[in-house]
Amino acid sequence: MAQITLQDLAYELNISVSTVSKALKGYPDVSEKTRKLVIELADKLNFSPNVVASNLRTQHTKIIGVIVPTIVHHFFSNVIGGIINEAEKNGYMVILLQSNEDFEMEKKQLNLLVQQQVDGILISLTVETKNFEHLERIQQRGIPLVMYDKVAKAIDCSKVIIDDKKASYDAVSYLIRKGYKRIAYFGGSMVALNFSNRFLGYKQALEEYRIPFDDSLVYICDTSDEYNDGYNNASELIKKHGIIGVDAAFAVTDVIAVGITKYFNTHNISIPKDVAVFGFSNWFMSSVVTPPLSTVNQPGYEMGKKSIEILLKEIAQSKDKKEIVHERIVLPTTLEIRQST
Amino acid sequence: MAQITLQDLAYELNISVSTVSKALKGYPDVSEKTRKLVIELADKLNFSPNVVASNLRTQHTKIIGVIVPTIVHHFFSNVIGGIINEAEKNGYMVILLQSNEDFEMEKKQLNLLVQQQVDGILISLTVETKNFEHLERIQQRGIPLVMYDKVAKAIDCSKVIIDDKKASYDAVSYLIRKGYKRIAYFGGSMVALNFSNRFLGYKQALEEYRIPFDDSLVYICDTSDEYNDGYNNASELIKKHGIIGVDAAFAVTDVIAVGITKYFNTHNISIPKDVAVFGFSNWFMSSVVTPPLSTVNQPGYEMGKKSIEILLKEIAQSKDKKEIVHERIVLPTTLEIRQST
Q1: pTM greater than the 0.80 cutoff
Q2: How much is the pLDDT for B54?
Q3: Boundaries of each HTH lacI-type domain copy (chains A, B) (predicted)?
Q4: For chain B, where are the alpha helices, taking DSSP H only?
Q5: Nearest CA-CA distance, residue B223 and chain A, Å
Q6: pLDDT at position B58
Q7: How close is the nearest chain A Cα to the Cα of B266, in Å?
Q8: Going from the N-terminus, what domains does chain A have, and what CATH number goes with each?
């Protein structure tokens, strides 16, 4: 039988590694009940505290596991690019798994990465992920975990994100200062923290500039079909409000914005004269379409690079049995203004 | 020590599993020299032929390894989509590795997949891959291997491809029949079989219609920067030949074609009136740009789906110790004609 580790005890009892360690060492801040449970289990499993050093996860595969919700998206492929290039420089290989915005798949894939003995995990959560036990289990095993883009507030780990609310607020404020008043919002699923924050930013800008919020100007687009949803929702928007009733459309991704643009271009709606269009992410195609799109610079490559830099640091700290201090990195976003506004 | 398998003997001697098997069974079509080598090694390693059944690779992880040259490309993301969806239906998980068009990385990643004990491997080769020993080693280990898109003629395995030469020939013939005579070719690295075949198709069409081949109309674009290379080479093309000296541009990917389109659109060159543009792959953006691009329908999703269907079949055949008959699937391509020609 393989040597029992502190992580195994923590996992079995569903408590943190540090609690197990403190219980075994007789620290006073561990409850008597917990202390007894730990000692009984350690005894039963022949845990040997005298080899604490070797009990720490010492197997290093030089492999990182990365879970992305989707690969078929320019933003995530930029993030992956940043991760892979930085990994290569540090002699690490990257196993990529696509969760396909499916919570069950995300859980299976985390298990797979544990099986495959990766040294650390980078993950952006699915739009469906509402509870986080599967992530806690990873941490209990002592596997370094860093989240990027779609993160969980409830999990204490390093995170690399953008300030989605501010980015959205900046874009919508810009439109308002340019004189637009009837601004439609083309968003994503509100379960996802980043999309709900972008919606809050939109509302905050309207509120600050005293523009009444009109929920009939809000459309939700499916992440798996952004282009078509952008196109079709633009059609709905014009049917409902006409060119008079709306003067700008802000979309939470450039692919949605391109869908909106295509609808307007093929229905004699002039951009920006009739309706301005503002996107998000600065996909290379946003500068190519007619007219070129104003958008939010979303630093995908840097997000990937920063995420793995932090992960590699935590892997090293874990290996050297140093204390791991988590970081929360908020990457700046800027506006890219082009001819669509 | 783990039980020695037929695969281990084959790997050590750098010969096929079937040769090892035949040598041990005393088949006459194995040379005496080979037979001796096999028997000596089997003896030395305590190989036991009475447990042939258990010597076949029996560990099944229900994991497939997929190597793609690049993920940040719509064609490959469609292929991955086809693979992943079909894998899921069959209860398999997919480990994705991006070789980044780097031959050394491709080799390392194949080793990684062997380490990770995947049940089978799908691979599209890098544009640099000129020798194939690393693939032979995989086969010697008895691991089912299927190639897609960029394949190696020298390796006997199942392959799923398109007829690159015919697809290119069809596109260029179409242009010629429409009256275009000075057709520029925007291609990819000639090391890659699929790109060199597309070039042959271009030349074949010119030849058949008795249009002189002019190598000053040929440009090679880097796969890692297709959009910009398309744009910049279009600029070179016009500098060298002027609008008079060229009437059509055929590009081996839509991303290149979009780069060409952007250059023409921003330099008062009318498409198709001054220069027609024809792309390849039918990326969704090819129908979105102005004017919408004519292109070759390249069945990415079906290629992924078919590749893994064959791989799963071969994994099952291998498990049941049935003979594996390799397939060579050539998926049909059609032309999508739009306003750019």
Answers
A1: no
A2: 35
A3: 4-58
A4: 6-13, 17-25, 32-44, 52-55, 74-89, 103-115, 133-140, 164-177, 193-208, 226-241, 254-265, 300-319
A5: 15
A6: 53
A7: 10
A8: 6-49 (1.10.260.40), 59-162+300-332 (3.40.50.2300), 164-297 (3.40.50.2300)
